[in-house]
Amino acid sequence: MTASILILFILGASYLHITNGVFDMSVMDVIKTLLRIEPNPKFDLVIFEFRLPRIIIAALVGVGLGMAGVVLQGITRNGLADPGILGINAGAGAAVVIFMFFFQLRLVTADMSSWLSILMMPLFGFVGGAIAAILIFSFALKNGHLDMQRLILTGIAINSGFGALSLFLSLKMSAQDYESAAVWMAGSIYNANWIFVVTMLPWLILLGIYVHRKSYLLDYFQLEEDSITSLGIAVEKEKMKLLLASVGLVSACVSVSGSIGFIGLMAPHIAKQLVGIQHRYVMPVSALIGAGLLILADYIGKTVFAPSELAVGIVVSIIGIPYFLYLLVKSKA
User: Fold this and answer.
1) What residues are paired with 142 via a beta bridge?
2) pTM of the model
3) Of the chain's two ends, which shows fewer C-beta atoms within 10 Å, N or C?
4) What does the alpha-carbon distance between residue 79 and residue 329 come to, in Å, rounded to a whole number?
5) What is the mean pLDDT of each run of 10 residues along the chain (333 residues)?
6) Where is the chain membrane-spanning (predicted)?
7) How far apart are CA 203 and CA 196, in angstroms?
């Protein structure tokens, strides 16, 4: 029932997104274009080249960030853990900016013949995200266990450090490359295209299936470590595998959308309110919530200030910051 409602929410947000904008279309125009009934070149261009890839990218990024958020909160046993807050987004983003700096790839006006360059971006993002995760968890360890206060503080520091590196490199770029990097770092998917869909889809499918199959372990991770070990679970090994999988999900998302925070924070909390705390249910519901939230946020960013656009990362932050503060106050209560 919950999944059905969320799917309807995603379809509703997609309907608003695909029919509204600078060039408005009716539902019948969209249906006829999708079913190839009396095809119109203008509608084909708007739907297949601009709006449909953008909606699909928003959904995929939302799914990836929602699932990664569930994993990170389950591993750390901290409801405030999020790929953006912990600095994993920033690490992956800095690696992609380095890639853009040295290979001079402009995401806004990327040459679509450069398939290899675009397909390599998630790999660079994965390396950057993994380095950020290793640094964060190394500094957060205390007597062999994760210290939650250290985790958050270290994440904020790593986030700031990688953010500064990204800004420094972007300022060294040419004017056109800087514009591309600045738009991307704000968290934007308005330049979405089918190549970006193909780029992130294998990562999302393979890693998404893996973390969902392993989601039952997150239930055990909420117990004391002695209790988990007595069940025959290699705790640290399994945590590292899940952490690397979540870093891969985040990196694939960051490589096509830039750094979008708070989806990985909000989606798991909302999912737990809807279906309880069992992670095998929380994981898919969080993925659906992430997809719906990001599609809706991108629609808001596209239409509120039309014909100008607000980056989806900014829209999500406007919603996410008050929600983060609410969770922070609630955790102290």
Assistant:
1) 145
2) 0.89
3) C
4) 12
5) 92 91 82 83 86 93 95 86 83 85 58 60 83 85 72 84 88 77 78 84 93 92 77 80 90 86 91 92 95 94 82 88 81 63
6) 52-72, 84-103, 115-139, 151-171, 191-211, 242-269, 281-301, 310-329
7) 12
